[in-house]
Amino acid sequence: VPAAKDNLIWMIEYEKGKCSVVDGPSAKEALEYCQEYDLVISVILNTHTHWDHIGINKDLHKKGMMNGVEVYGSKKRASEVPFLTMPLVDGDSVHLGSLQGKVWLTEGHIDGHISYIFDEFLFCGDTLFAGGCGYLFDGPPIKMHHSLQKLASLAPETFVCCAHEYTEDNLLFALPVDPEN
Q1: What is the pLDDT of residues 120-169, one digit of tens each?
Q2: Rounded distance, CA 43 to CA 68, Å?
Q3: Residue 3 burial (C-beta neighbours within 10 Å; 0-12, 13-18, 19+)
């Protein structure tokens, strides 16, 4: 679900009428999608603590809609994940109904950044994008490199569900750097 200027809110319907959202700057777009498809948000999967990823938590709370909503996020940044109910570390498993996912620590963009893997779907927040990777706020670059190497170990048919649509900008940047590619 497109949100704000270039954010993407991923929604996982894991039981009839129940869904999880992955990150989001606000609740508006997700709630409109839920209304259209008769869904209720029951889980929020936060990848990291930038405002455009945890804004949905705050917005749902402001609207009085956080009762019964589980919030998963990084244990390393637990105090910064609004309404966190499930602090996670690298290697943890998460369950959405019968769906089971894995949690990987994918730092570099910021410390404590995590990604979620459900079958062939990777929800990687701001670690990986089409044609690029996330900006290094905390770094150092070796952390991002390690995270990208980890993600590169996933099967080639893995669907990458990143949190922003930066493809055109990333490719325009890459073209003069590697014009033969």
Answers
A1: 999 999 999 998 889 999 989 999 999 999 999 999 999 999 999 988 98
A2: 9
A3: buried
